Amino acid sequence: MTLSRTLLAIESSCDETAAAVIREDGKVLSSVVASQAYLHEKFGGVVPEVASRAHLERILPVIDQAMKEAQQTLSELSAIAVMTEPGLVGSLLVGLTAAKALSWSLGIPLIPLNHIEAHIYACEMQTDQSIFPCIGFVVSGGHSNLYDCQSATEFRLLGSTIDDAAGEAFDKVARILNLPYPGGPAVAELASKGDPKAIAFPRPLLHDKRLAFSFSGLKTAVMYEAFGVPGSHKPVPELTDQRRADIAASFQAAVVDVLVKKCEQSLKLSKHKTLCVGGGVACNSMLRERLAHSSQQQGYRLEMAPGDLCTDNAAMGAIAWQLFAANRFGNLDLDVSPGLVRAGD
Description:
By secondary structure, this protein is α/β, with parallel strands linked by helices.
């Protein structure tokens, strides 16, 4: 097998425009990410139309920069890989259109990628030992999903959120506590100054046998704690800086308790010995610490994607080489799949 072949991976599923050039042995020659966070900050969340317009402006400059940093020309590429699911439909279409144009004009294969599966594969990129088979857990702004992963080309959804994902709950709680977007890092920073046992927030579905998540009610409980229950005459304590920190810490502890418990539950049900975790919320230090402790206590192998591969990026498109080997190619009729089927649907 020659190690000289390279491919270009494109990511535009949500609010990051990214491109990476990746060699067949998995070495990432370049990884460029153009963030849109500042565009969406004033809205407290991602606005789909704003995101897709920003992708249109950035997609070609980002690809060009990735090629230059890799010291590659387009004619040297062996394939084009692109995230086609799940995500915002307008954003996905920008990346797919660029990928189709390059594939057609260069006469090289087009490889469709699942954004969630790529997040799990990011764990493979930091270890010399294969992560498969494993339980894959993606926890991000839009997803809290558990997968049975037999190989890099075999993923089966075991469970997911039935309402708000963990990252979405962090963003909403950030708005309640008047913190900036994105909410995950802001809530975590404030939580470091608070008492995680100050408020007994609910742990939704903690003891439920289903591999499912639900954080909408927890978010509502935070709002009631901060501002009181509508129609209630019970006085609400002043929302001091310390009380805000205690609320943030108690909320974060509740989320982490649920995430860790469901990971342990899925490992026991599947009998897998490896847990791989990716997605933006996987950057949360409390979650990483608790999972590390859990792995030591429960005796399973834990692989967590490095911080720069947790948030959206194109380098995790290295999974495309596995699909290339399996002849999993797309054609010019390829379309995007913005939604994600939930377990049991």
